[in-house]
């Protein structure tokens, strides 16, 4: 299956920018289509990596040799963060050069360089495919199984590619960069953390399951986020009228990555795994919609101390939505109770129930939308989350 770069919702900033995103989201493919004639430095290749690691100033020499070339792409900049000093110098000289600095890990840059550019390069994120980007090729069942990574969807054998994805990260990012002392411990952690996908993260329980201490688990969670393989969403606390839970929820970056990491056995219920995959699929779409739209809003969830929970809250200057996700083809009145409770506290919100059925329904003033329909209508170019 082939996908055109025209399908992506990403809009490029005018000036220099960092482009972050996990491996396989299509950053390099998109850039090669849009900047085919740019000066290109691929730090995943052995020779450029060795040359620029030894002499970062080589970048200045390359730029000076091509004075008419105004765009410079440095792929996987985190591998040689020392290059940021040269980039900063060129920008300061006002040579009218545009830098595109891609990265699939923010860890080294956090320690050694992003602040060095002092706001002279904005930060953007490339996400897995959104349903509308692939339109007629989007199938909910397939997305729940394989996810939405372009690397996986476009592969000759998508399942094999997905199965190798986590191993690739372990080998190329974690092990090669020496991010952890014990790769075996981190591999076990990846299996255990999959059980926390879509759940409030509990470091103590994860540490017990991994047989490592809490401090190590906390560092592993941070590494996972720095590698852009996971993200957390906080509790919505604005103008709170009830006692609320405090811990954030964790999601792996893609539903397919979750499925590939999640161990399965005779005691695991298919419905439970599918439910977490569906919730994660919605989470990654909402996150991409917020990122690509440029709307000043954020993603939250809501949970009271008594366990009443709304899966997602999208809140911002021009957006206030409460979204519940149900892995069922039917909706009953009791399924809407969390949304009704939230609406009691926040009558300004627009509540949606997403479910696996085929028909759009309105129950007690709450719009219930087939999940596939909702995802296919999700468009960053539109100011509304959903247009009935």
Describe the global form. Answer: globular
Structural class: alpha/beta
What is the radius of gyration? 22 Å
**How many helices?**
16
Strand order of the largest sheet: 9-10-11-12-14-13
Low-confidence stretches: 1-6
Helix content: 25-40%
**Mean pLDDT across all amino acids:** 90
Secondary-structure element order, N to C: EHEHHEHEHEHHHHHEHHEEHHEEEHEEEH
The largest β sheet comes out as: 6 strands, mixed
Overall domain count:
2
User: What gap, in angstroms, lies between the N and C termini?
Assistant: 31 Å
Q: What proportion of the residues form beta strands (DSSP E)?
A: 15-25%
Oligomer: single chain
What features would you describe in this structure?
It is built from 16 helices and 14 strands. The chain has a 6-stranded mixed β-sheet, sandwiched between helices. A 5-stranded parallel β-sheet has the order 2-3-4-1-5, covered by helices on one side. A 3-stranded antiparallel β-sheet has the order 6-8-7, sandwiched between helices. It has 2 domains: 5-125, P-loop containing nucleotide triphosphate hydrolases (Rossmann fold, 3-Layer(aba) Sandwich); 131-377, no CATH class. By secondary structure, it is an alpha/beta fold.
What attributes characterize this protein structure?
388 residues; alpha/beta; Rossmann fold; 6-stranded mixed beta sheet; 5-stranded parallel beta sheet; globular
Topology:
Layout: E1 17-20, H1 27-34, E2 39-42, H2 46-54, H3 58-65, E3 71-75, H4 83-92, E4 98-103, H5 107-112, E5 122-125, H6 131-134, H7 140-146, H8 150-153, H9 158-175, H10 183-193, E6 199-200, H11 203-210, H12 214-226, E7 230-233, E8 249-252, H13 255-261, H14 270-293, E9 297-303, E10 309-316, E11 319-325, H15 337-345, E12 350-355, E13 361-363, E14 366-370, H16 371-377
Parallel strand pairs: 1-4, 1-5, 2-3, 3-4, 11-12, 12-14
Antiparallel strand pairs: 6-8, 7-8, 9-10, 10-11, 13-14
């Amino acid at each position: 299956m082939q996908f055109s770069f025209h399908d992506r919702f990403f809009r490029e900033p005018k000036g220099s920018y960092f482009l972050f995103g996990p491996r396989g989201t299509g950053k390099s493919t998109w850039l090669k289509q849009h900047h085919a004639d740019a000066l290109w430095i691929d730090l995943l290749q052995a020779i450029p990596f060795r040359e620029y690691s030894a002499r970062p100033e080589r970048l200045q020499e390359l730029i000076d040799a091509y004075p008419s070339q105004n765009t410079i792409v440095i792929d996987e900049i985190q591998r040689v963060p020392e290059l940021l000093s040269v980039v900063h110098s060129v920008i300061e000289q006002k040579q009218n050069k545009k830098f595109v600095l891609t990265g699939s890990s923010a860890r080294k840059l956090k320690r050694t360089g992003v602040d060095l550019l002092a706001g002279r390069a904005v930060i953007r994120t490339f996400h897995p495919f959104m349903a509308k980007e692939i339109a007629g090729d989007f199938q909910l069942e397939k997305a729940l199984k394989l996810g939405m990574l372009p690397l996986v969807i476009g592969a000759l054998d998508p399942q094999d590619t997905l199965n190798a994805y986590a191993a690739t990260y372990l080998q190329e990012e974690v092990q090669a960069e020496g991010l952890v002392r014990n790769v075996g411990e981190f591999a076990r952690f990846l299996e255990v953390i999959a059980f926390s996908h879509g759940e409030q993260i509990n470091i103590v329980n994860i540490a017990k399951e991994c047989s490592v201490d809490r401090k190590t688990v906390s560092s592993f969670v941070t590494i996972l986020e720095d590698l852009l393989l996971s993200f957390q969403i906080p509790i919505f606390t604005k103008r709170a009228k009830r006692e609320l839970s405090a811990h954030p929820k964790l999601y792996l970056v893609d539903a397919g990555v979750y499925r590939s990491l999640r161990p399965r056995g005779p005691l695991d219920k298919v419905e439970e795994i599918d439910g977490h995959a569906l919730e994660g699929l919605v989470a990654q779409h909402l996150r991409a919609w917020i990122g690509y739209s440029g709307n000043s809003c954020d993603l939250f969830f809501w949970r009271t101390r008594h366990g009443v929970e709304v899966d997602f809250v999208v809140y911002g200057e021009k957006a206030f939505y409460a979204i519940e996700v149900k892995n069922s083809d039917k909706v009953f009145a009791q399924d809407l109770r969390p949304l009704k409770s939230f609406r009691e506290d926040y009558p300004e919100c627009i509540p949606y129930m997403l479910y696996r059925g085929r028909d759009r329904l309105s129950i007690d003033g709450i719009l219930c939308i087939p999940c596939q329909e909702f995802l296919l209508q999700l468009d960053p170019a539109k100011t509304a989350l959903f247009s009935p």
